[in-house]
Amino acid sequence: MPANIPEGFFCLGYYCQPNDQPLRGYVLVAREATSPKPEVGCIQDSALEHPALEKPINYTLLWSSNSDSDGYGYFWMPNPPSGYRAMGFVVTNNPQEPKVDEVRCVREDLTETCETSDAIFTMDSKHPTDSFQVWSTVPCERGMWCKGVSVGTFFCSRYLDAEEDLDIKCLKNMDPSLYGMPTLDQVHALIQHYGPTLFFHPDETYFASSVQWYFKNGALLYRDGAEKGVPIDFGGANLPAGGMNDGEFWIDLPSDDNAKNQIKCGNMESSELYVHVKPALGGTFTDIAMWVFCPFNGPATIRVGSLLTIELNKIGEHIGDWEHYTLRVSNFTGELWQIYFSEHSGGRWVDASDLEFIQGNKAVVYASRHGHASFPHPGTYIQGSTKFGIGARNDVARSNNFIDSSTRYQIIAAEYLGDGVVTEPCWLQYMREWGPTIVYDSRSELDKLLDLLPFYFRFSVENIFDLFPTELYGEEGPTGPKEKDNWEGDER
Q: Which residues does 425 contact at the CB level (< 8 Å), separation at least 6?
């Protein structure tokens, strides 16, 4: 149960987390907002005739544990009155039904749907009715324009699969001003305080550069049907802006071999992080997405089992590589809450307590060798089939090649601040591909791979294709940050 609830506020539900992690959660509390009465002649919204908060009618006991070994716990679901929704569950240490004054339910028009997120507790049983599981919850619709607010409560069920339509809801932020979001000066302060250090692998060949350096050193813009590419303006002013990725334009390396090899290697002296700042979870958090550009993505390395590692010649290569990581900062406290590590086509959130830090509050982010995917700790990460032990190998470690994103960054977008506060660079409006489409002769290279496999790994080539990540077979040129789903949406 939340402690030290301010006078006049009410609990909306209880909080739950694993007991092997530091206690660091939150639960929102609420009170009835006072608003001026409507002037004479105005029609009052019918919703305003009903209070925002109401007591539950009673409770339903969902599950209980009353043994000396497991402890005593009773999980109660509040039953809301008509037109209201419960925000969370109540837990007691005795079988007596909680008092209706224990929590408040919220008027339905002030709520949004939510879904389960991370599993917190699982009690499996041979008898389905004896099983029990607890999850954290998040709003179903998430992104910088979405209004759903996480209450910090939990969902629980006697079934091991979370129900699609949860019995509880989350809150909706009805204030379009997003007054909790940071000003531009505060954004700079947050980045300078929390900006991670991005380390490249000691054996990396293809480093980051600034976008401007890439254009200045010979990157060319091609149009479908044209024989030759044209040089790109230093700031990208001659790139086609807006529209959609229709395959009509793409960027490629210079045709001269020496210039091509030079630009592939990048230029760490010019490199910087490109920052997009946006509201998250209804404006209760600020997401600081930090994008890094590398002119070239190197070939993949395949691991088979625990002993065999094979470096491929071409598979996995592509021109123009955009990767990112995202800092999520609480607008209640200003604390770094989590970092999202983008790992090729996926990724994951990592709590601040599980991060590696350098220089006080600045976390460490590791870029994988050749692929530049981001990871929270050094080591080797396998992307592919864990069942058969076959996949692309991502090696990460510290080196003398790094970017301190707390000092080397450029804010390129912060839409919530309004027009004219942050000027978006011309190249950000380029929605087409940053590299040509490449189709590798994957079968011939994988045929050679088969000869090196132990007998029990010698599946057909078709099965091998099924086991490898899809990115290895061929590569359409990657699009820029603004074309990615997570630009407006949430990290998933």
A: 211, 235, 236, 410, 412
> What does the alpha-carbon distance between residue 105 and residue 246 come to, in Å, rounded to a whole number?
48
**Rounded average pLDDT over 256-278:** 96
pLDDT tens for each residue of 293-345:
999 988 878 777 666 777 777 777 889 999 999 999 999 999 999 999 998 77
Residue recorded with tokens 């990657």: 478
CA distances to 69, 116, 193, 331, 345 from 335, rounded to whole Å, are 37, 24, 10, 8, 28
Under 8 Å between Cβ of 157 and 267: no
Sole residue written with tokens 């949406």: 489
* Tokens 């004479």 -> residue: 40
The distance from CA 305 to its chain's CA centroid, rounded to whole angstroms, is 30
Provide the mean pLDDT of the chain: 87
Burial grade of 357 (CB within 10 A; 0-12, 13-18, 19 or more): middle
Compute the Cα dihedral for 437, 441, 442, 443 and give only its sign: positive
| Residue 470 bridge partners (DSSP) | none
State how far the Cα of 217 lies from the Cα of 156, in Å rounded to an integer. Answer: 57
Q: Show contacts of 444-452: CB within 8 Å, 24+ apart.
A: 445/312, 445/313, 445/314, 445/315, 449/302, 449/310, 452/304, 452/308, 452/310
Task: Yes or no: say if 173 and 283 are a contact pair by the CB < 8 Å rule.
Answer: yes
Q: Strand 58-67 relative to strand 71-79: parallel, antiparallel, unpaired?
A: antiparallel
| Cross-strand pairs, 139 | 114
**Which residues 6+ apart lie within 8 Å of 320 measured at CB?**
251, 293, 295, 296, 297, 433, 434, 435, 477, 478
Task: Identify the three-state secondary structure at position 209.
Answer: coil
The Cα 98–Cα 95 span in angstroms is 9
Q: Do residues 452 and 262 make contact, with C-beta atoms less than 8 angstroms apart?
A: no
User: What is the chain's length?
Assistant: 492
Count CA atoms closer than 13 A to 68's CA, side-chain side.
0
The string over 422-440, giving b where at least 16 C-beta atoms fall within 10 Å of a residue's C-beta and e elsewhere, is beebbbbebbbbbbbeeeb
Query: What is the signed CA dihedral for 101, 106, 107, 110, rounded to 10 degrees?
Result: 160
Tens digits of residue pLDDT in 441-479: 555 666 666 666 666 555 533 454 554 544 455 556 789
User: Around 255, how many Cα atoms within 13 Å sit in the side-chain half-sphere?
Assistant: 7
